[in-house]
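Input record (Table S2, row 122):
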Amino acid sequence: MSENCIFCKIAQGSIPARKVYEDDEFVCFHDISPAAPVHLLLIPRKHVVSLQNVTPEDSHWLGRMVALACRLAAENGCRPGPQGGFRLVANAGADGGQEVHHLHFHILGGERPWQGRMAAIA
Ligand code: 5GP
Ligand code: ZN
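Output record (guanosine-5'-monophosphate complex):
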């Protein structure tokens, strides 16, 4: 828990969010400003600032986080198969466009076209 971190507060329950999943390690909830028909955020409960801060010792929980993201995409409206799919985005640092400094994966999916900032890579 880091003081003044919005995502730590969401994980803890002191700020409300539309949660779709939580366990001992991770919490997943709807982005407050969706950029695609499905737009979820998946975070570790542990306060890690960004992917810039992870080390090889983090590979086990990061692997579980990636696998969980794929499962939650399928369970929350991302369409299966080659016509469907989803985008997994982790913005890291200022150059990466990160605004909330608690590591998170954006899980984006649903029928295109999407509007706005997540519609294209650049
Ligand atoms: P970043 O730019 O850091 O990768 O993305 C941060 C994301 O968090 C943005 O898509 C933004 O809409 C979302 N966000 C910011 N504050 C809140 C909040 O209080 N609740 C929820 N659910 N999403 C938030
Ligand atoms: Zn945090």
